[in-house]
Amino acid sequence: MDVNYVGEHLLPGQIGQFFIVLSFGAALLSCISYFFATKYPEENSWKKIARIGFWVNALSVVAIGATLFYIIYNHLFEYNYAWAHSSKTLPTYYIISSFWEGQEGSFWLWMFWQSVLGSVLLFKAKSWESSVMTFIMLCQAFLASMIIGVELFGLRIGSSPFILLREAMDIPIFREANYLSLITDGNGLNPLLQNYWMVIHPPTLFLGFASMIVPFAYATGALWTKRYKEWINAALPWALFAVMILGAGIIMGSFWAYEALNFGGFWAWDPVENASIIPWFTLIAAVHVMIAYKNSGHSYFTATFLAMISFVLVIYASYLTRSGVLGETSVHSFTDLGMSGQLILFNVVFLVIMVVFLTVKKKEMPITEKDEDIYSREFWMFIGALVLTVACAQIIASTSIPVFNKIFGTKVAPPLDPIQHYNKWQSGFAVIVMILTGFTQFLKYKRTDSRKFLASTAASLVVSLILTAAVVYFTKTYTNLIYILITFASIF
Questions:
Q1: What is the rounded distance in angstroms from the CA atom of residue 25 to the CA atom of residue 59?
Q2: In angstroms, rounded to a whole number, what is the distance separating the alpha carbons of residues 184 and 346?
Q3: Are 147 and 108 in contact (CB under 8 A)?
Q4: Are 150 and 158 spatial neighbours (Cβ–Cβ below 8 Å)?
Q5: Is the CB of residue 54 less than 8 Å from the CB of residue 148?
Q6: According to DSSP H, which parts of 323-362 are helical?
Q7: Side-chain half-sphere exposure of 264, counting CA atoms within 13 A
C-alpha cells in the first residue's frame, strides 16, 4: 500500500545519496587512471583524468558531509541516522559528535581526511604522484563502498547514512501518513559519548588512520616502479606525521575512557583500544628502521614490510571494531551493520597487494653485503623495532580470539582479567624497549668507539640503580619486581 507521507524532506537525502554514488565512481575512475598513468608515464592524458576524478571525489565527500550535517542539525528525524544519533536537546558541540557516532559518519570522516591528504600529495608528491595516488584512491573507493547502501543481485553493499527511518524499521507507526508528527525527538547521543573528548578524539584518530596509507603507498609505489632507494626520504615525514597524530588520538581516547567508562585508569586493554595501538606500534618500529636504513643502508626489507603492514593493520582494526565480532568483549565497538564481508575484502585486497609486491620484488631489493656492527645504533634500533613487533603480535593474538573462534568454530575464552593478562606480557616488552632507548643514545651509526660507549653506559647504569633503590625504599615496593624493573628502565 502506497502512503503519501506528510512533512518529509526527501531532497537532502537524495542529494546526499547522489554524491555518495558520485564519490565512489570518481574514486574508481581516479584509481584506474592513476594506475595507467604509472604504467604509461609518457601519456599525460591518464594523469589529467585521474586528477579530475580525484577532485570530483573530494568535492563529493565534502558535499556528503555538508548534507548529512544539515540533516542532523535541522533534526530531520525522517532520516534514520539523525533519529538514531541525535536529539533536539543536544548542544551544537554534541551534535557534531553525533555526526560520527555511527559507522557511516566515521567512514565519512576517514574519507574526508584522505581527501585532504590526497590534495596535499597532488601538490607535493611530484614524480611519485601517480604510483602513490593509485593506492590512496583504491582505498577511497573501498571507503565510499562502505556508505553507498545499494543492493546488487540481492547483495547489499554498504550502509547509507541517508536511509529513511521508515525504510530502516518496519513498525506500525509508518502506516500513518503523518507519522512525523508522532516522532517528537530523536534517540539522542549515547550518554558515554557526551564528553568533550569525543568532539576532538575521533577526528584526530581518523586523521591518524588516514595518514597511515601514505607510507604504505610510497613503499608499494617504490617496489612497483623500481625506485627502491628513493621512497624512504619521501615517506619518512608522512610516517612521522602519522605516528604523531595517531598517538595524540590514542591519548585523547584514553582520557575519554578514564572519564566516561570509569575503567579506573587511562588504559584497560579493551579490544578497541588494542586495535588502535597495534598499527601505531608497528609504524613506530617502521620509522626507526627507516631512519636506520637512511643512515646505514641496512634493513631495507624490514622498513618496507613494517610501513606496509601498519596500514594493513589499520584495516584489520577497522574490521575488529566494525564487524560486531567484538560485541561481547568490548564496551565501545560498533554493532554489525552487515558489512563484515566488505571489510574482509578490503583487508584481503591490501594484504594481497603487500604480499605480492614483497614476494615478487624480494630479489631486486637493495641489500648490504657488510653485516651491521654490534656497536652501531642501527643494529639496536632494529632490535628495538623487532621487540615492538613481537609485542604487537602478542596483543593481536589475544585480541583476535573472537575472530579465531568465528573462523575455526573454536570456543577459546578471552582472558578473564585482560588488564592482568596484557600487563604481564607488555610490562616485559616495555622494560626492554626503555633499556634499548637508554643505551642506544650513546651509539653512533655504522661504528662506535666501544670504550666510550661502555663508560657512558656504565655511568648511567650506576646512577639509575641508585635512584631506583631510593624510589623503591621510599615507596616501600620491595616485593613488586615488575614495578622495580619498570622504575629502573624508566630512570635509565
A1: 13
A2: 39
A3: yes
A4: yes
A5: no
A6: 340-360
A7: 2
CA gap 243, 310 in Å, rounded: 11
| 142 alpha carbon, distance to own chain's centre | 15
Q: Which three cell numbers stand for residue 157?
A: 553493499
Structure confidence by residue, pLDDT tens digits, 288-309 = 999 999 988 889 999 999 999 9
pLDDT in tens, 210-269: 999 999 999 999 999 999 999 999 999 999 999 999 999 999 988 888 887 766 678 888
Q: Alpha-carbon torsion 28, 238, 276, 221, what sign? A: positive
Residue type, 345: L
Longest dimension (CA), the chain: 89
Question: CB-based burial of residue 412 (10 Å sphere; 0-12 exposed, 13-18 middle, 19+ buried)?
Answer: exposed
Q: Name 150's bridge partners.
A: 157
Domain boundaries, the chain: 1-192
Which residue is it, cell 616502479? 225
340-362 CB burial, b ≥16 within 10 A, e <16: eebbeebbeebbebbeebbeebe
Q: What is the pTM for the complete model shown? A: 0.92
Q: Which of 107, 482, 26 is nearest to 318 (CA)?
A: 107
Residues, the chain: 492
